[in-house]
Amino acid sequence: MDISFVIPVKDEESTLKELYRGIVENTTPLNLSFEIIFIDDG
């Protein structure tokens, strides 16, 4: 795993898809392995 995105969220349901899509679209061209972890601490 080259990059881990650990993102705390609380009451962010309306923006998660956009955030996820943005991370994937901007990270995929770098040819790195990555994971996205959303932490719901609410």
Provide a short characterization of the protein structure.
Keywords: Transferase. This protein has one helix and two strands. The chain has one helix spanning 13-27; strands at residues 3-9, 34-40.
Pick out the low-confidence regions. none
Radius of gyration: 11 Å
Number of separate structural domains: 1
Morphology call: flat
Helical element count? 1
What class, by secondary structure content? alpha+beta
Multimerization status: single chain
What is the helix fraction of residues, given as a range? Answer: 25-40%
Distance between the termini: 28 Å
> How many strands, what sense, and barrel or not for the largest sheet?
2 strands, parallel
Strand ordering within the main sheet = 1-2
> Mean of residue pLDDT?
95
Q: Give the total of beta strands.
A: 2
The fraction of residues assigned to DSSP E strands is 25-35%
List the secondary-structure elements in sequence, H or E. EHE
Describe this structure in words.
GO terms for molecular function: transferase activity. It comes from Dictyoglomus thermophilum. InterPro entries: Nucleotide-diphossugar_trans (IPR029044). This is Glycosyltransferase. The chain has one helix at 13-27, and strands at 3-9, 34-40. It is an alpha+beta fold and 42 residues long. The chain has one domain (3-40). It has a two-stranded parallel ribbon. Helix 1 links the parallel strand 1 (3-9) and strand 2. It is flat and about 35 Å long.
